[in-house]
Amino acid sequence: MPVENPEDRTVEVRPLPPSVDEELLSLYFENKRRSGGGPLVSIKKKGDSAVLVFEEAEAAAQVLSKGGHILHNVELSVRKPVPKDRCRLLLQGINPSTNIDMIELYVEKMMGLNTTDYILHPTLGRDCILIHLNQPFSTGDSSCLERVMP
């Protein structure tokens, strides 16, 4: 049996009514008759949205193909999550007067990069900086991401 890609088993649900908790989401989306879904591996609720990972890609596809999902009289939008770009990171909350050389030193130290490994793109207000990497992060680099992007 082939191993399914987690992205094929994942859906994003929004907007969630404030009264909806993870247990109700689980009951609804595991109910094949109501949602078209099936058993879930995980639910991550954040604000008015949630990311659901099903055991099987077919269940996620059925949920996506089903017409409307209504929970607590709210029509839910269900879609595939936006894929993450492992070559771009956004540093936010930068003091606009911070020297770009200081930011370069910080990025190189925290991420273990050389000056040829990345390009910095400050926003117009200089309070955010997009870091464009020449090579995508591997899964082993996640601790670096957590240090840079708390």
TrEMBL record:
Molecular-function GO terms, alphabetical: nucleic acid binding
Record-linked InterPro entries: Nucleotide-bd_a/b_plait_sf (IPR012677), PAR10_RRM1_2 (IPR034464), RBD_domain_sf (IPR035979)
Domain of life the protein comes from: Eukaryota
Protein name: RRM domain-containing protein
